[in-house]
Specification:
Layout (H helix, E strand, L loop, with lengths): L11 E4 L2 E4 L3 H21 L3 H25 L12 H17 L7 E2 L4 H25 L6 H24 L5 E2 L9
Helix pairs in contact: 1-2, 1-4, 2-5, 3-5, 4-5
Length: about 190
């Protein structure tokens, strides 16, 4: 099997149920999710499995769920069945709560950084926010998009924030606090 098909040489790409321009909002949304998935793969390689097995398992599950999100966004068939479920959001919420309880309480805003893995997770957080914005734009254009994808991405960015803080905490590296402001969390 060849990796190239030449079917996109004129600026079009295939969706499930049709073809669109490669700069279509739908393609931009799932393409940003694909970019996010790559950063998650990078984060996994930066985590020591003896310390972060729970996070690695989370991230591997998230990679599959993001693939589901991309597939759901690429589906423009008249009769659609979506893959991502609300239960994935509930699992994320439980993990966010667990991770938030483990890290020290926040007093100030924090900047991305600390350890390499935490910084990569912060990149994943910001790419998640961009993916969510692309999905919202798609929804605002009255495109048929499963709302669970937008909700999942919204919660996922919170997960990455909590996970980045836990990575720093477990490695005994302080979060990088924003020093130009005072304590904002009490």
């Amino acid at each position: 099997m060849k990796l190239y098909t030449k079917t996109g040489d004129k600026g079009k790409t295939s969706l499930m149920g049709g073809r669109v321009n490669k700069d279509d909002l739908r393609v931009e949304a799932y393409g940003t999710i694909d970019e996010l998935n790559s950063f998650i793969g990078k984060a996994i390689t930066e985590l020591d499995s003896t310390i972060f097995q729970d996070l690695i398992e989370d991230l591997q599950t998230i990679q599959h769920e993001l693939f589901d999100c991309g597939g759901d966004l690429a589906n423009v068939m008249k009769e659609r069945q979506y893959t991502l479920q609300e239960s994935s959001i509930e699992v994320l919420e439980k993990r966010i709560d667990t991770l938030s309880d483990e890290a020290p309480p926040l007093k100030r805003f924090i900047l991305p950084g600390g350890t390499s893995a935490a910084a990569t997770l912060h990149i994943a957080r910001t790419v998640t926010r961009r993916a969510e914005r692309r999905v919202v734009t798609l929804m605002n254009e009255k495109e048929d998009v499963p709302t669970v994808v937008q909700k999942y991405l919204n919660r996922l960015s919170d997960y990455f924030f909590a996970a980045a803080r836990v990575v720093n905490f477990r490695l005994q590296v302080s979060d990088v606090e924003y020093i130009r402001g005072g304590d904002v969390f009490k």
